[in-house]
């Protein structure tokens, strides 16, 4: 099901929906979801894009191709966790799982990992963003972003969020990899990256971001876990969940909510 809440956080309605994974509302008020196909295992393919009315009636749907190939890699079963509808197009970002058979990025290295690490997927391979025509369901484009948990598209561009496992590795401050929100043009050209992992407890950092949206002014809101700041001194607990606000270009504007 999909639950609707008012601005005070009270549940005001339920919309029936089968196996939803990601959700967005278009300018006409229609509900768009990515969805699995099995009640027992909604995280298994095939996956679908579905357009619903306010009563939960499916008005339109099409299947998402969940197979990816990078050189020697073949992957199946990538969950389409994020969906955003903008300007007559539907943008879907998918996670990647079950990579096989080996890792060309680690070829020839001592103790080479047999599969890509999350760092390698985040920073070198990327997660697929598929762009569909909202009327026909035809795939118009596919490109790769550094993060696969959620997606938000507005007039300023495409924002993709996905937490990584950089930990205290210095690359977590790299401008093209360390930030966990990536901004792209509408056709997939990389612009900037912000919201770094919580390794130094700076106000703009966030531990495990999993959701993203924007307001009418183009400001970006990122939701996720605060976690525990393991790599700062003195060691200090962080909030379990946070919502942080950034400008359209990634400047930190404040913490909206924490609990």
What can you see in these coordinates?
The protein has one helix and 22 strands. The protein is mostly beta strands. The protein has one helix at 118-125, and strands at 2-5, 11-15, 20-25, 31-35, 47-52, 58-64, 68-70, 73-75, 82-86, 89-93, 127-133, 139-145, 150-154, 157-161, 179-184, 190-196, 208-214, 220-225, 228-229, 236-237, 241-246, 252-258. Mean pLDDT is 77; it is low at 98-113, 165-176 and 227-236. The strands form seven sheets. Strands 3-4-5-6 form a four-stranded antiparallel beta sheet, with no helix packed on it. It starts with a strand and ends with a strand. A hairpin with a 5-residue loop joins strand 5 (47-52) and strand 6 (58-64).
Radius of gyration based on Cα positions: 18 Å
Indicate the percent of residues in helices: under 10%
- Structural shape: globular
The averaged pLDDT comes out at: 77
Structural class: mainly beta
What kind of sheet is the major sheet? Answer: 4 strands, antiparallel
Distance between the termini: 25 Å
Widest beta sheet: strand line-up: 3-4-5-6
The percentage of residues in β strands lies in 35-45%
Number of helices: 1
